[in-house]
Design a protein that fits this description.
Length: 101
């Protein structure tokens, strides 16, 4: 679900980007050198590296475009984030269930 979150914001905000596919189990050394946490996805924006899809999502929303996907009111933002988390749990659960069966 993490990669899909990054895809959503990059597409919604029409942010030019390159995608590099990385094997999730056998991550190459060049990738681990760039991103010691080994998390997918991560971004490199102007030489600054940021792992963790939720942080990437917020950073891109704050940095690119005039319209924000999340609002500016702190309580509304929190409610929107909770909704996204609940959605991801349901989707992740169904994906994991589908794979494990």
């Amino acid at each position: 679900m993490c990669r899909q979150r990054a895809d959503l914001i990059l597409t919604a905000k029409k942010i030019p980007h390159d995608i590099v596919h990385v094997h999730l189990v056998r991550k190459p050394q060049w990738y681990l050198k760039l991103n010691p946490r080994g998390q997918v996805p991560f971004i490199d924006h102007k030489g600054q590296l940021l792992p963790e899809s939720a942080l990437v999502f917020e950073y891109l929303d704050d940095t690119f475009g005039e319209e924000r996907l999340f609002g500016t009111d702190p309580m509304k933002r929190a409610a929107q984030k909770l909704l996204v988390q609940d959605f991801e749990k349901k989707i992740h659960g169904s994906i994991v269930w589908g794979v494990s069966r």
